[in-house]
Amino acid sequence: MPIRTLCDILTGLANRPSKSDLLRYKVKGSWRDIPAGEFAATVRSLALGLDGLGVKRGEMVAILSENRPEWAAFDHALLNLGAIVVPIYPSLLSEQVRFILDHCGARGIVLSSEGQLAKVLPILGSLPNLARLIVLDPPSDMPTQALSWPALLREGEAVHQAEPQRFEALRRAVAPDDLASVLYTSGTTGEPKGVMLTHANLASVVSSTLEAIPIDERTTALSFLPLSHAFERVVQLACLEAGATIAFAESIEAVAQNLQEIEPTLLATVPRLLEKMHSRVGDALRAASPVRRLIFRVGMAAGLSKVRAREAGRRPPVWSALLSGEAE
After folding, report:
1. pLDDT for 47-65, tens place per residue?
2. What distance in Å separates the CA atoms of residue 197 and residue 309, rounded to the nearest whole number?
3. Backbone phi, then psi, for 246, in 5-degree steps?
4. Which long-range contacts (CB under 8 A, 24 or more apart) does 16-23 make?
5. For the whole prediction, is pTM greater than 0.85?
6. Of 236, 229, 169, 175, which is closest to residue 201 (Cα–Cα)?
7. How do residues 127-148 score in pLDDT, each as one tens digit?
């Protein structure tokens, strides 16, 4: 069934208790998994914590963070609260961040680290609407106007224990025509412009994506493009709706290594990255021995043969199946 609002994504995840690796992230050299049930509970606690802070339906709240599980959690917490998510590219400078926060009238902002917090503190005086700062990795000397993400989780869980039905009541109030997100353009042709997208807009794109691309619980996606970009965010929303696994790359520099570690079946990318990968493979091939170049070409021919056969709906040639070890 097509989803009506982005809140329906969380409903689907709550019905997938056996999904043990919904999100994956790397800490100190090891990959860790977040189950679907844990993610849904985190979103609920964050939403109730934000509600307790006074974040109301229809208010703008920005996210200034690199890709990480908490980005997705806050995204869905705000969406299920009826607030409007304003993603900001983590690479933007302080004045660029100030323009967006001022233009949309953001009432709050989620910051990933002390570095991102340092961009916002000097401009607070020029942002009278910005009343709430939440920091994912809080510094030792937290500003008085900021709150750590663990503290917000605790407050939200306390609300849930006292009012078990409050979260569902908040979610039910969200309608398809409600504004879900404002995405700002890069500003390369002038000042950034905010694109207003409703729940129905994004839900329609997610449903269409799942109709066109076979994403399911067996899919593993590697996320590295900024979630502040519409393309990556839609892919992530589609993966969550389908119950796929999303692994967050450590950084753009670590994508090549993470690809080998995760072995994803889905990757949202852009032409420039593929060009760089192609160039690196070409350089390595030119420096290889004749035997290695022959092995590479045979492997490529076998792979292309299998892909073309699959797209045509027929069995791959015996020789390509034998080379890949898939012959019966």
Report:
1. 999 999 999 999 999 999 9
2. 40
3. -115, 120
4. 16/217, 16/243, 19/217, 19/243, 21/245, 22/240, 22/243, 22/245, 22/246, 23/69, 23/72, 23/245, 23/246, 23/247, 23/248
5. yes
6. 175
7. 999 999 999 999 988 888 899 9
